[in-house]
Amino acid sequence: MRIVLCNSPEEAVSFTVNRIARLVARKPEAVLGLATGGTMEPVYTGLVAAHREGLSFAKATSFNLDEYVGLTPNHPQSYRYYMEQHLFGQVDMDPSRIFVPRGDLDPLEAAEAYESEIRSRGPMDLQLLGLGHNGHIGFNEPGSSLASRTRDKALTMSTREANARYFGPDETQPISALTMGIATIMDAKEILILAVGAAKAAAVRAVAEGPVTTMCPGSALQFHQNVTMVVDEDAGAGLVLKSYYREAETMHVDRD
Ligand code: GLP
Questions:
Q1: Cα distance between residue 253 and residue 256, in whole Å
Q2: What are the tens digits of pLDDT across the range 81-110?
Q3: The overall pTM is greater than 0.85
Q4: Are 99 and 69 in contact (CB under 8 A)?
Q5: pLDDT digits (tens, 9 = 90+) for 124-141
Q6: 9 Cβ inside 6 Å of ligand 1
Q7: 211-238 b/e with 16+ CB inside 10 Å = b?
Q8: Which of 136, 141, 152 to mutate to test the pocket of ligand 1 (most atoms within 8 A of CB)?
């Protein structure tokens, strides 16, 4: 796993934006795996800015990681809505090549349909990931099978608490989500995981340096050949091999 330690959250975001923008410039028909969450908001702001400067997403395809079960695509707390606000509505993506799991349909059928769409259009050229406090990727909570595929996954109390801030007092917060599985994520040709802030430090360390275990679903990424983890100073604070990663970066030659 390549670990990129950045001096600030802004630097980590800009590394991520550049990586995605360079891929789309080099391969306009790229298949992108996209993520949601607070961490990704400035990433999408950066991609929208790149679009305004001429980058076209018209030939790209995207698959989002997950969606709350029970929410319609136009529900303000749905991930589809989030994506419309932060990216889809502001760039030139072709709506027929935008895919987000359908939380408002029968979960079993929607999950199967999503996997088959990924099979026919994938694999993902680049899968973008955030990281949950408990080490989840997508909504693959601790205990998830490392061989899992898209399915309806019950959310842990800690994840529900972390995301409660987005729901109003009168809104019912979903208790489960349709999420790509860990095996679905691992099929991507390249994975880029971004984490910023001290609250992510323990999860970052567990993903990069801990044992591979279902208790930290992100640790499965250690079995992938092309993963880059981008962190700011706070999120990377617990990494044991910090100085090695820094030194290794000075020798790193970017292939893009
Ligand atoms: C949610 C999403 C994840 C995301 C995580 C972290 O649970 N399903 O894909 O990585 O939140 O979110 P944040 O970036 O807001 O910390």
A1: 9
A2: 999 999 999 999 999 999 999 999 999 999
A3: yes
A4: no
A5: 999 999 999 999 999 999
A6: no
A7: eeebebbbbbbeebeebbbbbbbbbbbb
A8: 136
Mutate to test the pocket of ligand 1, among 13, 39, 64 (most ligand atoms within 8 A of CB): 39
The residues assigned a catalytic role are: 66, 134, 136, 141
Element (H, E) at 227: strand 227-231
> Is the minimum distance from the CB of 135 to ligand 1 under 6 angstroms?
no
The answer, yes or no, to whether residue 78 has pLDDT greater than 70, is yes
Half-sphere exposure of 221 (CA within 13 A, CB side): 36
**Ligand 1 touching residue 179 (CB < 6 A):** no
Give the Cα separation of 136 and 130 in Å (integer). Answer: 9
